[in-house]
Design goal:
Layout lengths: L3 E2 L5 E7 L22 E9 L6 E8 L14 H67 L1 H18 L7 E3 H19 L3 E6 L8 E3 L2 H14 L6 E10 L2 E8 L13 H14 L4 E6 L5 E8 L27
Parallel strand pairs: 6-8
Antiparallel strand pairs: 1-2, 2-3, 3-4, 5-7, 8-9, 9-11, 10-11
């Protein structure tokens, strides 16, 4: 009752009605102290903020003059108030900590789920792409051995840039660009003049972080849903810029765009949005817009972060020759 808050401070006062300690048997009216009975207790709470923790000071006392403490028993009412308030605070803190632990566990589970989806995406995309590339290379070995050799060389480059980071959720723009360049070079051999590639990415941005396979997903969508169905083919642009501490990566094409029906399921873009959310939180975004005069443009925007390079392995110790050198004959 009578809750009062101090303006500008973390302090409040309230009064609590005392429970009747005698139940239905009030003290005798001949007892002179009964006329001085205290009906309420006063509770004062003061919060002191700290750097990592804060403290709460609680004061429980009769709502009466101090001199009455000498004449009347407290009868345990303030102890009951202190016990109730501290139990409520302890329960609230325990509930908040439990919710924080559950939230941390959910976040960790979401990250593991994102990595699992990424591995599943690898498992779905890699065999299909490898089978088509090897089948094309097999045909070219009989008709055009030089182009077959070029295709196998780009395939080796693609695998070299893909396999080391297949279990990692974060990559760099340079690594993603290397993988995409090899992938598109293979498709240029398959599609011939129907595919044109233009890449505009400054070297200073190659070390910035990017979710693994993100650039690959956008390029595959541009080829599969934009340029392959188009009779004359087209161009794929890969652009990257850094502005105000944010990295923007755009993959655009001049294919069919949104005007025609697409047979895609959208799983690739859905997984990409999920990986962006888990890796970078709400600061990352993926937008899709129509390209002019035709085609699509997909843009990833996220805060600039440099991926720390992995420590270089220690050099192997020199091994002494097993066979000692023989003395020269005189």
């Amino acid at each position: 009752e009578r809750l009062e808050r101090s303006v500008g401070t973390l302090q409040l006062r309230a009064t609590q009605r005392r429970a009747d300690p005698y139940g239905e048997r009030p003290p005798s009216r001949w007892n002179p102290l009964a006329r001085l009975a205290i009906k309420h207790n006063q509770i004062t709470a003061r919060v002191t903020p700290g750097v990592d923790t804060c403290s709460v000071t609680l004061l429980f006392e009769p709502d009466a003059g101090a001199w009455l403490d000498l004449l009347l028993l407290d009868e345990g009412s303030n102890y009951e108030n202190a016990e109730a308030v501290t139990q409520a605070l302890s329960g609230k803190v325990a509930r908040q900590r439990r919710e924080e632990r559950e939230q941390a566990a959910r976040t960790e589970a979401e990250k593991e789920l994102s990595v699992a989806r990424l591995n599943l995406l690898h498992a779905q995309v890699e065999p299909h792409f490898l089978y088509n590339t090897l089948a094309n290379a097999q045909v070219l070995t009989r008709s055009d051995p030089e182009r077959a050799e070029q295709m196998l060389g780009h395939l080796i480059q693609y695998l070299r840039s893909s396999l080391p980071g297949i279990d990692q959720s974060l990559s760099t723009l340079g690594q993603e660009l290397e993988r995409v360049r090899a992938y598109l070079e293979i498709l240029r051999i398959r599609m011939g003049a129907r595919l044109t590639l233009q890449i505009d990415v400054p070297d200073a941005l190659h070390n910035l972080t990017l979710p693994s396979m993100s650039l690959q997903t956008l390029v595959e969508n541009a080829i599969k849903h934009g340029l392959e169905p188009k009779s004359g083919g087209g161009t794929v642009w890969v652009l990257a810029r850094e502005l105000d501490g944010r990295l923007t990566v755009t993959v655009a094409d001049d294919g069919q765009g949104m005007a025609t029906g697409s047979t895609g399921t959208g799983i690739g873009l859905k997984n990409l949005r999920e990986r962006l959310r888990v890796s970078c939180g709400a600061d990352a975004s993926l937008t899709l817009v129509s390209n002019f005069p035709s085609g699509m443009a997909a843009t990833i925007s996220l805060p600039c972060q440099h991926l720390e390079p992995a420590p270089a392995p220690a050099p192997a110790p020199a091994v002494a020759p097993l066979i000692p050198e023989l003395p020269h004959a005189s």
